Amino acid sequence: MTRRIDDYALIGDLQTAALVGRDGSVDWLCLPRFDSAACFAALLGDEDNGHWRIAPKGATGCSSRRYAEDSLVLETFWETRTGTVKVTDFMPQRDRAPDVVRIVEGVSGRVEMSSVLRLRFDYGSIVPWVRRSEGHRVAVAGPDAVWLRSEPPVKTWGQQFATCSAFTVAAGERVAFVLTWHPSHERRPALVDPFEALEQSLADWREWTARCAYRGPYRSAVIRSLITLKALTYAPTGGIVAAPTTSLPEEIGGVRNWDYRACWLRDSSLTLGALLAAGYADEAAAWRDWLLRSVAGDPADLQIMYGPAGERRLPETALPWLRGYADSRPVRTGNAAVEQFQLDVYGEVMDTLHLASQAGIPAERHAWNLQLSLLGFLESHWREPDEGLWEVRGPRRHFTHSKVMAWVAADRAVRALEADPSLPGEPGRWRALRDEIHAEVCARAYDPGRNTFTQSYGSRELDAATLLIPRVGFLPPDDPRVVGTVDAVRDGLTHRGFVRRYTPDSGAVDGLPGREGTFLVCSFWLADALRMTGRADEARALFERLVGLTNDVGLLAEEYDPATGRQLGNFPQAFSHIGLVGTALALGGEETAG
Fold first, then answer.
1. Residues 180-201: tens digit of each pLDDT
2. Which of 62, 96, 243, 417 is the most exposed place for a label (fewest CB within 10 A)?
3. Contact 43, 29 (CB under 8 A)
4. Which residues, including other chains, have CB under 8 Å from residue 404's CB and lie 6 or more apart?
5. What is the pLDDT of residues 130-176, one digit of tens each?
6. 233: which strand partners?
7. All residues at 6 or more sequence positions from 327 whose CB lies less than 8 Å from its CB, including other chains
């Protein structure tokens, strides 16, 4: 049976990540980077597409699991008829080669254990050649080589194109498995000591979480979300991927399946705000620097997303040999939305750099000239329709949120020049642009009959992105048009108390068949908007309902289906966890944006 999306936990080494199920199976892992081809792809197919399960013999699901302390070290407990065992899964922060470490420890009694490893390179399509070498197992196919060893050695054999192991642990005994990847043309990297690596990993996370400045009532949920955001960071560059997975469906059995293993600019200002407010200036500075490198060049070539190292080419391809999660096809790699025109990213870039400056992150010399180039392009193109925040695959429209973010770009330029008159620029020119955009949005995107801003000029559809209007400073929270918009979204887009992105009959807007679940970050935006419009009790109640949706180890996907109680979409999702952190801080009286 297909495991629920929220049955998984996350481990990672700040360059890639794996998903571990309640049954002890690693069903998703891309090596060596987030966006590399998967060597375990059972998540999007079946066990023959690659997985690694360690569990008591004959067991189905674990008894309980948790993260050790405030870390990304996963502890899974199994209570059996003959005893109790703990499996500790983690990926040490690497020097060069990625390792997956799985330590089996007897807690009580004696437990018979089994390990079944099926390596399948290139998203489950290639069965490697497996042989013994130096007492270890090594699997090789094309550019990939993976080594498996155990300490102490256990009985291991090949069976049905899998590497199997059987052993028994008694109370106090430990058996460690280490899986290491390297390019097949290179020598095997130095061996990692699994037990020392465990202690170092716990110490690394202990030091990192101690820096969190938040001490409010939701600290546990905030820390877990911050750890998740850190886990989605590609440490060599500072880029943050939207999720470590591809093609987990927004509708079970549907086609709304996208690759989120890339870095979206739209996440930038919200990510930066959350990190800065929580006390993580170094991570915020690294993200800002990634942003500057990625967007450098002709402003006409600005993309909405980039690869973890700033790559621009992200071609979308279907993988027909994978049946998809719960038969949700197609499975895609890459994302064609990279070719879309989305006006809002100009505002998001400007807002990100404005936030960084306000927080005291030292400015890069070339950053302001880059911003002036972006503004010059925006000045000539803001009147054009675009695909918008939600990356619709239908016709371009004059999306309200896109125009509001164009206003943000001009507004942040004016603020920068007012704060530092020595900067080159024309404040009068940008004030005029800001005023022109503001007037047009208020005239063409606002429906006075219903007292709400709509999704696009002249439309009747609602859009949860309009909840951001007061947050970015376009209008004050007490403006009747803002209050009316918040009420309209709450009344018109909520499903059992949670918020959809836009009108449920979305095919007319986004050009795709089927429906999707409620969008978790939009529900956090509603909580923020309720708080800003004076309804703090209602905001807090919604926020606490949202926190209650996290799975047993505190993780959130992109969406939630209230009818089935299942999380949907790629998992875990940075946007959802950014929303959780931002709302928690705001409810504690700390502003995170604007």
1. 999 999 999 999 999 999 999 9
2. 96
3. no
4. 344, 347, 441, 466, 468, 469, 472, 474
5. 999 988 999 999 999 999 999 999 999 999 999 999 999 999 999 99
6. 240
7. 253
